[in-house]
Design goal:
By secondary structure, this protein is of the alpha/beta class. It has helices at about 10-15, 40-55, 80-95, 115-125, and strands at about 20-25, 60, 105-110, 130-135. Helix 3 (about 80-95) packs across helix 4. The longest helix has 17 residues, at about 40-55. The two termini are about 20 Å apart.
């Protein structure tokens, strides 16, 4: 189930039974002269959709811009700072939790996202004991 293809009443019905959402995250950066700039987010999105389909859970639209400051020397790269990336994750989780989501599974496609995500999880989970955060 893709969140972007659902109506809010369908999400409300889903939340009456489940509180899980899968959030694919990646990056928009170079992968050598022949690799696609979208590799990291395209792979994460594809895996997340397959998981969502099998498990019958909602999949959030991919967060395609990650923490890729180290790749800005290559044309086409788009990046958030570590603080900006952490803030994005926290705000997405906080917004979704307002509606009843409690378990957040992140499907990560980019290694540079891990450090900022760990910081975001630490900050968020210490403030909110009712949430669960899984990072893969």
């Amino acid at each position: 189930m893709r969140l972007s293809h659902m109506t809010w009443p369908k999400v409300e019905t889903y939340l009456a039974e489940k509180d899980i959402i899968v959030i694919p995250v990646g990056a928009t950066e170079q992968h050598g002269p022949n690799g696609l700039i979208g590799t990291d987010h395209l792979v994460a999105d594809g895996i997340a959709r397959a998981v969502g389909e099998r498990a019958g859970v909602i999949v959030h639209p991919v967060l395609a811009v990650g923490m890729s400051l180290h790749h800005l020397g290559f044309p086409g790269t788009s990046s958030l700072s570590a603080a900006g990336y952490s803030a994005q994750l926290i705000e997405v989780v906080e917004n979704l939790s307002r509606h009843g989501f409690r378990r957040f599974y992140f499907m990560n496609g980019h290694g540079g996202n891990t450090g900022p995500a760990e910081g975001a999880a630490s900050d968020l989970l210490s403030a909110r004991g009712d949430l669960q955060w899984y990072w893969r």
